[in-house]
Design a protein that fits this description.
The chain is α/β, with parallel strands linked by helices and about 425 residues long. The chain contains eight helices and 27 strands. The strands form seven sheets. Strands 1, 2, 5, 6, 7, 8 and 19 form a seven-stranded mixed sheet that branches. Strands 10-17-11-12-13 form a five-stranded parallel sheet. It is globular, with a radius of gyration of 23 Å.
């Protein structure tokens, strides 16, 4: 017989987003909260990020990943929030029932008043980018290599090439160099680095590791073990340029080619999804098209900083608490947030127009291409400018956050468009 439980709030995911959301909900009056975490430990990706640089915005001090995680784990434990580790949520039903399984309880069902999705994201693999060649050992994602080195104490190889300039790839270039490996270079198909500027400077420039922009790997060599890769320059259409190919010997290839939000549960339930972020469409409360379901963190859109993940999770936690206490209900009128062709996406995708006009709404966006000396403009559907901000530098690898005053979010408007323009 299936075990049945009842909670006010279920949080799927015990990483930085899930921990912060659960704790914030508890601080806003929710009594019975359950965190379901697939791994056998809390903290998510933070536990393998032993480098510093976390918490500068949220805690106003520099912490390592495990230190940052431990602060929220302690908060959750002190708040007496129930935690089920090693627990896989297999289904969320539209009748507010969550199906999960673990070793201790077997298959069980949880009835809940509200749900917060905080499943994080996974790395894109070689199969997702279809590099031709053989399938030898020595090819792995940068996050897998980080687990081997930082948690398991293994070095994946001695002669390393990294494809992609995402933050994990840049950090692993430095980490492997410190462990004695020879990192021969970071190969990036785009004409700019896709990671944070500080990571490029601290992880590549400071260690003399070359970064090849507008290049890609077009072939893998080796049978049992990776022996080398063929690198080629690419054109504006990201196609290899004939005659620019050359061979680089290596025994390890790390892939840092993007992250994919873990939204199988969201898709199966029928959440409306954003094709760009690969996460659910939400309003400023992080409420999905199901009023009782909220989403936050990397399951919603990929963040650069865990500090932003925490702040977003707190929004979802407060909103879930308000929904449980009947302070908010189904949204009757929304204002759609749109953007111009220079912007990849803006989140949230719409704003609740029925909310009071005090305070502001925090918006997140990413640009498509790097630029300097630009202005961020927000206009309503009557072409009235509601925000005009100066930005000295914008780049795809760094998320832009800004506040839109609620006094401009009035019921008479139906849309707000965000633009990035030259001054």
């Amino acid at each position: 017989m299936t075990k049945k439980l009842k909670y006010d709030l279920v949080v799927v995911g015990g990483g930085p987003a899930g921990l912060a959301a659960a704790w914030e909900a508890s601080q806003n009056g929710v009594k019975k909260i359950l965190i379901c975490e697939r791994a056998h430990y809390l903290g998510g990706i933070l536990q393998q990020c032993i480098h510093n640089g976390f918490g500068l915005q949220y805690f106003k001090e520099e912490l390592t990943g495990p230190e940052y995680a431990s602060r929220f784990i302690e908060r959750v434990v002190n708040a007496e929030i129930d935690i089920k580790r090693g627990t896989m949520v297999t289904e969320v039903r539209d009748d507010k029932k969550v199906i999960a399984v673990n070793r201790e309880d077997g298959l069980f069902m949880v009835e809940t008043e509200a749900l917060i999705l905080a499943m994080g994201c996974r790395e894109r693999t070689r199969g997702a980018i279809t590099i031709p060649g053989s399938r030898p050992s020595g090819i792995m994602t940068a996050g897998t290599a980080q687990t081997y080195v930082n948690l398991d104490g293994f070095i994946p190889g001695k002669e390393v090439v990294i494809l992609g300039s995402g933050d994990i790839g840049l950090i692993m270039a430095r980490r492997l160099t410190l462990e004695g490996a020879n990192v021969k270079g970071v190969i990036e198909v785009m004409p700019y680095s896709t990671g944070l500027i500080r990571n490029k400077v601290q992880c590549l420039d400071d260690f003399g590791i070359p970064l090849l922009l507008s290049h890609s790997i077009i072939e893998i060599h080796g049978n049992e073990r990776l022996e080398g890769v063929t690198i080629s320059a690419v054109d504006q259409k990201l196609e290899p340029i004939e005659g620019t190919e050359y061979y680089v010997s290596c025994d390890t290839l790390l892939l840092s080619v993007g992250l994919i939000p873990e939204n199988e549960l969201s898709n199966n339930l029928g959440c409306e999804m954003d094709m760009i972020t690969k996460g659910p469409l939400v309003n400023e409360k992080r409420m999905t098209n199901f009023p009782w379901i909220f989403a936050c963190g990397n399951v919603l859109h990929v963040h650069d900083l865990v500090d932003n993940v925490t702040q977003e999770a707190e929004i979802a936690g407060r909103a879930a608490a308000a929904f449980i206490s009947k302070k908010i209900d189904k949204v009757e009128k929304t204002i759609v947030i749109t953007h111009d062709k220079n912007i990849s996406y803006v989140l949230p995708q719409h704003i609740d127009a029925s909310t009071d006009r005090d305070g502001s709404v925090q918006l997140f966006l990413r640009v498509k291409n790097p630029d300097e000396e630009v202005r961020l403009i927000a206009k309503d559907n009557y072409n009235r400018t509601v925000l005009n901000l100066k930005k000295s530098i914008v780049e795809p690898g760094t998320m832009i956050t800004f506040d839109l005053p609620r006094k401009f979010v009035t019921k008479d408007i139906s849309a707000i468009e965000i633009s990035i323009i030259k001054k």
